[in-house]
């Protein structure tokens, strides 16, 4: 095993390439290496605010980078350290523990054996205030607000149904964020079905099923995304059935989302199907033109983009079914305008978005991996593998960005495509490429060319 300082130097370089400069300066630059023992890497942060933010958004990214640089799987533990003392020369302390205050320094872990800590990974950007309510989603929005305001008392369970990219995940996070803010003693657990499955399999393999059951059955609000992926998984369905009964019997809130109604999920056990149908089924439909315009204006305001009405109408008229693609189109126009030092105009938008409005084609991650690998002179195996050479990392981030933009894949599903990387790694890659497209013309042109190529070959 390398010296911890040398290991962390390499990790820092990898992390810096994976996030925006603002994220690096505000959060990750404050990390200090403390200790490495066996397969546990302990890192220090200056206060509880930084620790919470890193634990919620960046811990998986750090774990992936550290494991890659160390050449072995590592778990990452966070502790609070005195930064001023930590920067003193090491010879002034007897050992690294001298600079770590004992109070308030309990490690925060994400290994399967320690997931019962109750930590949640909610995106703070997804709130009720940032959700655009309209006739297409009004029932789901109102029901989500109600269960957040009075968890366990109304609409239990709440089942939100709608196609990919229409805001189901946004509402789950909004519920969780509202509950945490207004009921600070409540334990909120948000997971994708894939995470639920992975936790279940890990618990079975490591014989920690008691901790697994406690983790999922002792929360106050359970939020599960994409339950359609439970089809053909009998053991997982049985586990959810018993988890449901325990929580519902205790008056705890359950909210689930799916791209189809419970009756349309194949091989779903009848007893579980009846439980899911016992509450409120709220459907989200594709947004109408007025709603799409409102979503674009909200996104423009959030990103400080001057969006002329005719440009908003052009985008909203041509991108009809998917909010993710709608916002992606705005990002492309804004990036090109910034790079060209030109105002956003209808003429510019029509040129940049010449590919929209055509008949949608099925695009798969394999198509995107093949196109990106060819464009960067790499193999697909290198693209999804562990190596972190600079050109390779850029290509990998572009591929993650394109899969998120052009397919229905969630961040955890994208991580699985790339060798089981943590979903926070994929989030950081998407945000990094989105930002860099506004600053680097060559990258913008590469991404745009790939989008045109992939859509043309779909």
Automatic annotation (TrEMBL):
GO terms for molecular function: ATP binding; DNA replication origin binding; lipid binding. InterPro entries: AAA+_ATPase, Chromosome_initiator_DnaA, Chromosome_initiator_DnaA-like, DnaA_C, DnaA_dom, DnaA_N_dom, DnaA_N_sf, P-loop_NTPase. SMART domains: AAA (SM00382), Bac_DnaA_C (SM00760). The keyword ATP-binding applies. Residues 106-117 have a biased composition (Polar residues). Transmembrane segments: none annotated. The keyword DNA-binding applies. Keywords: ATP-binding, Cytoplasm, DNA replication, DNA-binding, Lipid-binding, Nucleotide-binding. Residues 154-282 form the AAA+ ATPase domain. One of its GO terms (biological process) is DNA replication initiation. Coiled coil: none annotated. Residues 93-117 are annotated as: Disordered. GO terms for cellular component: plasma membrane. It holds the Pfam family DnaA_N. Residues 364-433 form the Chromosomal replication initiator DnaA C-terminal domain. SUPFAM superfamilies: P-loop containing nucleoside triphosphate hydrolases, TrpR-like. Belongs to the DnaA family. NCBIfam families: DnaA (TIGR00362). This is Unannotated protein. It comes from freshwater metagenome. The lineage of its organism: unclassified sequences, metagenomes, ecological metagenomes.
